[in-house]
Batch of 3 targets.
Target 1
Amino acid sequence: MLEMLRDIREHLRIGWEAFSRDRDTQKVVAYDLLILGEAASKTSRRTQKANPRVPWDDIVDYRNALIHEYQRLDLEGTWDFAVHRLPELERRLRRARVPPGGEA
């Protein structure tokens, strides 16, 4: 998950103007957000409970909303989520720990 967050951060360095015009970058960021949400949904309940400060449900909910947009990507919503919510998520994930005997 941290790798996806790093990749998203790297892709968004181009700024809003370039992002809003670059369909390839939009697709890559959307894909990374889908993978991030999928990984969160596969994280064991034990690990989720051991790390309550990580907004697991929010990540999965965003993935679900993103995947059901089909042909249309909400660029402003994606940008806002990535720029304003992901930095804190990354900080929380960096502090997250897998409990003994628990799977990621």
Target 2
Amino acid sequence: MQIMHKTAIAAVVMVLLAGQQQALAADVYVYPAKGQSPDQQAADEGQCYAFAKQQTGFDPMATPTATSSAPEEEGSVVGGAARGALVGVAVGAIAGDAGKGAAIGAASGGLLGGMRRNSTRREQDQWADDQARNYQYNRDNYNRAYSACLQGRGYTVN
């Protein structure tokens, strides 16, 4: 379950980023303002792609990758309950009722394990948001460089 959640988050981020990759043609509109031929426009767009990639270090045609690994998932209700029960047995044995101590320990351990798991999920969600923001930031920089290059070659770019 823990690995599935982490894998699911990573998969969602990669799908979202891949969607950005497919939107390459829709990111900017290029108009040949000085009557450039379709062949000339294709050549200029290819050269500006290389220029923008070199300037920004970002390649919109490459498969998106994460800039860091996702946080490890920690804590579980079952694992916390098991650890709590062991502690509870020891405390209960000292107090004279190991069974009652185990039950109290299991309940409190499960609660703490669940809290750690929720915290980890928030960290993983934050990581996914950070990855998406980082991708969009790099993509925006690339688009600015690409547009500047094409405008310098006499195209109107929006």
Target 3
Amino acid sequence: MAKAGDWAPRVLALLRAGNTAAAMAQMKVAPSVRDLQALQAAMAKAQLAGRWREVDAVLADSLLELSAPRKHRAP
């Protein structure tokens, strides 16, 4: 089983490889807000934030959806 903190680096690797469609699909089913925030910070650190407009939009939408009160994913 993967460690809890492995999600963001794996999605970042997808982005670096140029597979934006797979990265966006992973963002839509992200395990938690914390993981999305870690991905956002990693993208900023790697200077990838703002490189793909659609990726940034999916990341922002996913953050909003998971941050909304009473909205959560069932285990």
